[in-house]
Amino acid sequence: MNAIHVERLVFAYPDGRQALFGVDFTVERGERVALLGPNGAGKTTLVLHLNGILGSVAGGTGSGRIQIGGTDLHREHLPEVRRKVGLVFQDPDDQLFMPTVRDDVAFGPANLGLRGSELDDRVHEALVQVGMQDHADLAPHHLSFGQRRRVAVATVLAMRPEVLVFDEPSSNLDPASRRELADILAGLDVTLLMITHDLPYALQLCGRSLLMDGGRIVADGKTRDLLGDADLMSAHRLELPYGFNPMSVPGPEK
Amino acid sequence: MLRSGRNKIKNVRVHVPDGFFDAPTSIATGLIAAGAVGFSLQRANREIRETGPALAGLTAAFVFAVQMVNFPVGAGTSGHLLGGALAAALVGPWTAVLVMSTVLLVQGLLFADGGLTALGTNITLMGLITVLVGYFLTRAILQVLPRRVGSVVPAATVGALVSVPVAALAFTGLYAVGGAVDIPLGKLATAMVGWHILVGIGEAVITAAVLSAVVATRPDLVYAARHLQQELVLIDADGNTSSVSPDKPIAAKPARRALGVGVAVTFIVAGVVSLFASAHPDGLEFVGAKLGFESAAKHSAVAGSPLAEYGVSGIGNTEVSGALAGIIGVLVTIVVGLALAKLASLKADRAS
Amino acid sequence: MSGDGLLVAVDSRVHRIPAQVKIVALFVFVLAVVSTPALVFWAFGLYAVMLVAAVVVARLPAPVVSRRLAVETPFIVFALLLPFVATGPRIDVLGLELSESGVLGAWNVLAKGTLGVVAAILLSATTGPRDLLAGLERLRLPSTLVAILSFMVRYLSVVSDDLHRMRIARESRGYVGGRAGHLKAVAGGVGALFVRSFERGERVHLAMRSRGYTGRMPLLSAQGASSTQWLEGLAISLTAVLIAVASRVVGL
């Protein structure tokens, strides 16, 4: 069954900038997909549509069709869709808005109606998944950037989502934090859609990639094939790191 | 309320401390402030439900941070921003009252800045009067300017300019009612308003500069100009073009009323406050002397001040003339402000 | 500017008193101080002794307290001017002709203002921001206001850091400040800061809605204060009220 299905999606921001010019794609349940593309391609705008934060459902200017888990995205389904689709923002400061880590991870489940020990267990479980259970009572601004990113993942995991959407999970992380996050992501049993400029990260974690440019999907295929297509890459301002050969490293396909 | 505009004292935000006004005045302004916050919560409810409390909180954090910025306003001096009029233009008057109150509350509780019993006074002066005077004047002036988003800059400039001396006048009025020491109120009013016209010019210049920076990048964010936005053009998947109105979560109020309210609020505040000021025995004595009912004005401290010419001679009732002096003060400020606005828009036209 | 306010992170009896008790205590204490006639010098002496005792019990380092007293400076200037501008009979002090009521007024503003600031420092140095918010929530501050406060406190350091980085960027490109021509650079930066803050506010709201926010913030405070805690926290304030009443009745 389809986890995400998007059809002819169009959107313009209130200031008049049009960001999406007709986007179509489908992600199967359990798939791990990277969303690649240059800055300003509309990637973040696209993922903000997936749980109805932007777009006509939210009263914005746009058209098109979105299905999550087989049901159309409608205003009345929003609470359910927002539980199913977990969004991890690029800047953890946007996501961690409560006074302490514990308050923040509890925010989502509390909105789902959890209370008392059930809520505490859910918070603890999510923090254990990202290895941050010892920092529950700290304020977000006392954490390192890598720790904040992990707590941000925990805030979403606490909602037990079916689809996890990341906006540049590896950006600004030191190499060790980047690897630790990859280990956490690889161990999760969810559908994953991940915006990234970190092409080795995409190859390591995602078998399939979508390439987006100018508000449209311009390529869709195996990550290894896309990264190996030099013409396609240079046409959309994508470059592999120095010395990196996508054909010679192991990917998620065994 | 007193603000140090000199370069030497850096990053000092001045709030009325405990003990500056007597307990009844503190409690009365506390009630005013609580009422204003309650009313604003009600009025801002719709905006806050649409945009979330986070936006107001971030705006408050912004105002808090910006109050610590030293702006070079020319002639080797620098100014600070109170931010009431700016916040009102950016996020609307009711949210702005909440934002300014939040800033003052955090400064008082978290940073021990500004007395807790004086919180009501501080909120009334800096959170309520500057915001309302600034906003309604802005909306009123937008009525007579060309209908485009850029007009909000000169309009808010005047709003900011007038809001500061009006708040200073209100401070003097409070001092007349509940000041702990008898000082000649006329002197205080003249010094406060005279000085705060200068501070207000700084506030106006900074507000204009900040607003034009916002108008240049995200005009849709300026609350006071939401109703002036142009329609959007949308191109769909097949390349068809259509025109839609921008999604504006909250349209600003129909502005005809704003004109009246703005002028009325300003005049009432100025008039009532001056009346208060002149009702005080010392104030009476001084205003009387100043206006020439007594033999001559000997108060040399006032002679050189901008308000020295405000005398309304020939009016027998000192209270009335005191109020008149206040209103005239505001009028002069508005005229100066309008002239500045005219200059600013002329300059903007030439630049574009 | 840190998001922790003035918090001095040590453990003490004062730190452990629930925030709502401390907020009420501060308010009552300051109100008592403000209502005390300026001439009753012994009352102010007693207030000061009690405050110093509380500062010692709270294990606050003296430099922290004295540094924060600096917020008072502008009003000290104002107070020192009072003896010269106030009206009424004159007295002779060290060859200066001063107004009697002005001297008294200066003392009044200085004494009450200083006591108020020290008391406020005592609150903010012994109470973390989250506890303060929880305390305000327990004191029935409207939930929308608590929410706005909480976001403001959370993002204070983030916005200040943004501002700091902009200043560094400006200065590292040769900006020295002071000249009027540079107003545009500073104001442009502040304008950009607003856009950034506003957009962050929008993103935070999106993040909240993504996690099921429907207009109600979860409650921060877990439990109330016991009556023993109320008594302990209000001890100084109630004594202060007694002193204030006594000072009115007994006078000098």
TrEMBL record, chain A:
Top-level taxonomic group: Bacteria
Localization per record: Cell membrane
SUPFAM superfamilies in the record: P-loop containing nucleoside triphosphate hydrolases
UniProt cross-references to SMART domains, sorted A to Z: AAA
Ranges of residues in domain ABC transporter: 4-239
Record keywords: ATP-binding, Cell membrane, Membrane, Nucleotide-binding, Translocase, Transport
The UniProt record lists the keyword Acyltransferase: no
Any one cellular-component term (Gene Ontology): ATP-binding cassette (ABC) transporter complex
Record-linked Pfam families: ABC_tran
InterPro entries documented for this protein: AAA+_ATPase, ABC_transporter-like_ATP-bd, ABC_transporter-like_CS, ABC_transpr_CbiO/EcfA_su, ECF_ABC_transporter_ATP-bd, P-loop_NTPase
GO terms, molecular function: ATP binding; ATP hydrolysis activity; ATPase-coupled transmembrane transporter activity
Family assignment from sequence similarity: Belongs to the ABC transporter superfamily.
UniProt protein name: Cobalt/nickel transport system ATP-binding protein
Species annotation: Kribbella antiqua
Top-level taxonomy: Bacteria, Bacillati, Actinomycetota, Actinomycetes, Propionibacteriales
Automatic annotation (TrEMBL), chain B:
Broad class of the protein's primary localization: membrane
Pfam family, one: CbiM
Bilayer-crossing regions: 20-41, 53-73, 85-110, 116-137, 149-175, 195-216, 258-277, 320-341
One example of a Gene Ontology biological process annotation: transition metal ion transport
Keyword flag Membrane: yes
UniProt keywords, alphabetically: Cell membrane, Membrane, Transmembrane, Transmembrane helix, Transport
Gene Ontology CC terms: plasma membrane
Protein topology in the membrane: Multi-pass membrane protein
Cell membrane keyword on record: yes
InterPro entries: CbiM/NikMN (IPR002751), PDGLE_dom (IPR025937)
Protein name (database record): Cobalt/nickel transport system permease protein
Entry's localization field: Cell membrane
Domain PDGLE: 257-343
TrEMBL record, chain C:
UniProt membrane topology term: Multi-pass membrane protein
Matches recorded under Pfam families: CbiQ
Primary location recorded for the protein, binned into one broad class: membrane
UniProt KW Transmembrane helix keyword: yes
Coiled coil segments of this chain: none
Subcellular location: Cell membrane
Taxonomy, superkingdom: Bacteria
GO BP terms: cobalt ion transport
Keywords noted in UniProt: Cell membrane, Membrane, Transmembrane, Transmembrane helix
Assigned GO CC terms: ATP-binding cassette (ABC) transporter complex
Transmembrane regions: 24-57, 69-86, 106-127
PANTHER family given in the database record: SLL0384 PROTEIN (PTHR34857:SF2)
Descriptive protein name: Cobalt/nickel transport system permease protein
Record organism: Kribbella antiqua
